[in-house]
Amino acid sequence: MFTGIVAAIGKISSVTPLAGGADAGVRLNIDAGGLPLADVALGDSIAINGACMTVVEKDAASFRVDVSRESLNCTVGLDTTTEVNLEKALTLAERLGGHLVSGHVDGLGVVRKFEAVGESWELVVEAPHDLAKYLAFKGSIVVNGVSLTVNRVTDIGSGAALLCQFSINLIPHTIEMTTLKHLTVGARVNLEIDLIARYVERMISVSTLVSGK
């Protein structure tokens, strides 16, 4: 589990294809930046741009993870040399500064607006159709590994053509401490919905099936 509070900005310094042909994944070498690695053991989890990955090698300043082809197909930003948001797995001795985050990307959003508003920035993201029902005013959402609060949800259209856009206010601290500063209109981002919303939806759907209503 994670909190969505980015601990450091790292950088994917190399992407090496794994053996196995076109269906194989890649091994990433990640410069940890300011993320301390002394307490990280092989097999530990680190969220990279919101995707939970397992450490398979490490040294004093960097670590390696293997990313499967399935993970590459479901995420963005894990197949090229670029800056990434990093967070080590949560321990029970730490404050839950963001919200409960599993590190499992639910879908890819598209940035529709990213503009300065006063001292802050407004970020508007278009979410996939199947994630629209999980987005709520003042609810939580993870964007590229960053726990954020939804300020506005706008549904456009209906049925299979439904589009959902949500707006987020980014304070200067968030801009400074994460890679969200590099976003541009049209960029894709990793999204993870609120864990509680996921369970509520499941309970409601099962209750409906049981009751027949």
Give the tags.
mainly beta; six-stranded antiparallel beta barrel; Elongation Factor Tu (Ef-tu), domain 3; six-stranded antiparallel β-barrel; 3 helices; 14% helix; 213 residues; 2 domains; 12 strands
Structural write-up:
The chain is mainly beta and 213 residues long. It folds into two domains: 8-88, Elongation Factor Tu (Ef-tu), domain 3; 107-203, Elongation Factor Tu (Ef-tu), domain 3. The chain is built from three helices and twelve strands. It has a six-stranded antiparallel beta barrel with strand order 1-2-5-4-3-6. A hairpin with an 8-residue loop joins strand 1 (8-17) and strand 2. The longest helix is centred in the last third of the chain and has 17 residues, at 195-211. It is globular, with a radius of gyration of 18 Å. The mean pLDDT is 93.
The major pleated sheet works out as:
6 strands, antiparallel, barrel
The largest beta-sheet arranges its strands as 1-2-5-4-3-6
Multimerization status: single chain
Structural class by secondary-structure content:
mainly beta
**Which percent range fits the helix content?**
10-25%
What is the CATH fold-level name of the largest domain? Elongation Factor Tu (Ef-tu), domain 3
Give the total of domains.
Answer: 2
CATH 2nd-level architecture of the largest domain? Beta Barrel
Radius of gyration: 18 Å
| Overall spatial form | globular
What is the straight-line distance between the termini?
35 Å
Q: Would you count the extended β strands for me? A: 12
Uncertain stretches of 5 or more adjacent residues: none
Q: What is the arithmetic mean of pLDDT?
A: 93
Question: Helix tally?
Answer: 3
| Beta-strand content estimate | 35-45%
Report the CATH C-level class of the largest domain. Answer: Mainly Beta
How are helices and strands ordered from N to C?
EEEEEHEEEEEEHEH
